[in-house]
Write a structure and sequence with these properties.
The complex is a heterodimer of chains A (about 300) and B (about 325).
Chain A (H helix, E strand, L loop, with lengths): L21 H36 L4 H5 L13 H32 L4 H15 L2 H13 L11 H25 L3 H9 L4 H12 L1 H17 L20 H4 L6 H9 L4 H33 L1
Helix pairs in contact in A: 1-12, 3-6, 3-9, 4-6, 5-6, 6-9, 7-8, 9-12, 11-12
Chain B lengths: L3 H6 L6 H43 L2 H4 L13 H30 L5 H16 L2 H27 L14 H25 L3 H9 L4 H30 L2 H7 L16 H8 L6 H31 L4
Helix pairs in contact in B: 2-12, 4-5, 4-7, 4-9, 4-11, 5-7, 6-7, 6-10, 7-9, 7-10, 8-9, 9-12, 10-11, 11-12
Classes of the chains: A mainly alpha (about 300), B mainly alpha (about 325).
């Protein structure tokens, strides 16, 4: 290293990259470490997906979708009632969460951007998003299940759906709020300027403009709700039979869901039930991952 | 000289019905927004009220004693609270370096963009895998796989209190590992977002005075993004504390207190998941008390996180 007294580099060759000095070695070491860490981070997904695919996909058959789970000790059977149940409970959750979430988001973004009430609701949304999912179950258990508030029924599909909707609302409010904030104010002023009312401006101009981010948030919230178990194990409980969806009673009695089925069947010391748990995992993971990829596609579709 | 054109540009008088729709819509949106606050307050009230009989009966002792005996009606959540803290903090210790390392790897220009996006997508999809599926995988695949390692740990470090019991399958350490898998995507995603928001000029200036890539990352990029990263880590801590299904399935659900990470343990959420279905009487009230403790813990972490993010945000 040739340096003059002031420490300045005097030769051109000293500007070239020297692979073996400490800092460059350290640099490569850290890069390697970061690469290793990302490999470790991706590994669980590959392993889990691989196992679910191998153990679950081999069980896929028509029976799986059309039959009831077998009683302990018997062979065969399927998870038909749990698939229907997951769809029903998630639908109920969406029916409650989407209006509240989108409406609340519209209020935050369109009516009160930064006054104390909006701040407070945004803070509340963040706090609610941090509440553990099982607490939503405890809450619904305390309000609806033990009190039998819903037509004298305790465990029910509706109770399960409501518990899930509590988990969906923060996501939907946040994405609606963020999506609407991205809509340029010029659009709003333009609409108001040609004489549209506030209601028309919001429903015809701003919300349609922000449709994709809102829809993405809704899809992600639905995907999350479909996979949730903790809030369901003591609100919707489980049922080994088909839900009677043609009568009101069916919605107000306990119902099977895929996630609870996986939980119940995984801890049973029975081969058949364990296999069904893997098959149910495959169906559930396929459902959730496709919803997630759909949401990503929606997002990309919008940015085009 | 009135032409049809003039009519079109005359100021429109807003009919009463339109005003009604407008104010009605605003009120509707306002009330829907208020639902969030309502739910939050209702959760606190319901769980507090449900736990009140137990709070009055056991007081603070509930938090430190750990006999959970429905037969004698004696309850104490000490073991579960200890388990909640230990599992979440330990998993954080493992997940934070992994998550931050991954985030750096996929934001700095180390690998081609396609590969970066792919790793990013994989980590995001990992976050979407339901907890119960991870639990199933943990029971049947992960736990049998790591058991020899845990046995080695017991054989060589059994004198150390944390490894002082023979692994029997489900236990605290496997639960910690599955928690790592669950909170890793949160830390990675939030760290990546905060790193991406650091202005390019900052790093370029660092390169300009001759630093290496990691010199820039450690001394410039990470400090500039620290508020977001810390926020993400706290958020992950809150998640880990409340995470239920995967933990319930692999932790062993033992209410006996043990320092050992290899022994079956318990967390508050696992206890709730296990017992609520068939609980009655003062057990329900004790579970509600435990749930209230869990809410307070996660709320404290979340609110602390929001304050910390505000305090730490750099103004550059």
């Amino acid at each position: 290293m040739k340096k003059n007294n002031s420490g300045l580099i005097t030769r051109k060759s000293e500007l070239s990259y020297k692979p073996n000095i400490t800092r460059n070695l350290g640099n490569r070491l850290m890069t390697g470490l970061a690469g290793l860490f990302s490999a470790i981070a991706v590994l669980p997904l590959i392993l889990v997906l691989g196992y679910v695919l191998i153990k679950g996909a081999s069980k896929i058959s028509i029976d799986l979708f059309t039959q009831l789970p077998p009683p302990p000790g018997l062979e065969g059977g399927g998870i038909g009632n749990a698939i229907i149940g997951t769809l029903v409970v998630t639908l109920i959750a969406a029916l409650f969460a989407i209006p509240v979430g989108v409406g609340g988001g519209i209020y935050l973004a369109e009516y009160s951007r930064s006054d104390w009430f909006a701040q407070f609701i945004r803070f509340g949304t963040n706090v609610l998003a941090g509440v553990p999912s099982i607490i939503a179950g405890v809450f619904i258990y305390g309000t609806l299940v033990t009190t039998k508030l819903l037509f004298g029924n305790s465990y029910s599909a509706v109770a399960g759906g409501l518990a899930l909707s509590i988990l969906m609302i923060p996501t939907i409010i946040k994405t609606t709020d963020e999506g609407l904030k991205l809509v340029p104010d010029d659009l709003r002023r333009g609409a108001l300027g040609v004489g549209a009312s506030r209601f028309i401006t919001i429903t015809r101009i701003t919300v349609p403009t922000a449709f994709t981010p809102i829809a993405t948030g809704v899809v992600l919230a639905v995907a999350r709700a479909a996979g949730e178990t903790a809030p369901l194990i003591f609100t919707a409980l489980f049922s080994s039979y088909w839900a009677n969806l043609l009568s009101v009673d069916g919605l107000f009695s306990s119902i099977a869901t895929l996630s609870v089925l996986i939980y119940n069947f995984s801890i049973m010391p029975l081969e058949v039930q364990n296999e069904l748990a893997w098959a149910a995992s495959f169906v559930l993971v396929a459902l959730i991952l496709s919803l997630n990829l759909f949401a990503r596609w929606l997002g990309r579709f919008a940015s085009r | 000289m009135s032409s049809p054109m003039d009519n079109r540009y005359r100021l429109r008088k807003r009919p009463q019905s339109e005003k009604l729709v407008d104010s009605g819509f605003k009120t509707l949106a306002l009330s829907l927004a208020s639902v969030v606050a309502l739910i939050l307050v209702a959760i606190l009230i319901v769980v507090f009220q449900g736990g009140l009989p137990s709070m009055l009966r056991y007081g603070w002792e509930f938090l430190i004693t750990s006999n959970w005996n429905p037969v004698d009606d004696e309850y104490g959540a000490g073991a579960a609270i200890y388990g909640t803290l230990v599992t979440s903090i330990l998993s954080l210790f493992i997940a934070v370096p992994l998550g931050i390392g991954t985030a750096i790897f996929i934001t700095e220009n180390i690998i081609p963009e396609k590969l970066r996006n792919f790793i990013g997508l994989m980590v995001e999809l990992l976050a979407a895998i339901p907890s119960v599926v991870l639990g199933l995988w943990a029971i049947f695949v992960m736990e049998p796989f790591i058991r020899p390692g845990l046995e080695l740990l017991y054989n060589y470090f059994g004198w150390f209190p944390l490894f002082s019991s023979s692994p029997m399958g489900p236990g605290t350490l496997p639960a910690v590992l599955i928690l790592v898998v669950m909170i890793l995507p949160i830390i990675t995603a939030i760290t990546r977002d905060s790193l991406q928001q650091v202005p390019q000029q900052l790093t370029q200036a660092a390169y300009g005075i001759g630093t290496t890539r990691w010199g820039a990352i450690i001394n410039v990029t990470l400090p500039a993004a620290i508020s977001g990263i810390v926020g993400g880590v706290m958020l992950a801590l809150g998640r880990a504390m409340g995470e239920t299904m995967a933990v319930t399935m692999i932790i062993g659900n033992s209410n006996n207190f043990s320092f050992s990470l290899l022994a079956p343990g318990n967390t508050i959420s696992a206890m709730l998941a296990n017992q609520f279905g068939e609980a009655d009487g003062s057990q329900v009230s004790s579970l509600m008390y435990a749930a209230f403790v869990l809410i307070i813990m996660t709320l404290a972490v979340n609110i602390f996180a929001q304050l910390l993010v505000k305090r730490l945000s750099l103004k550059y």
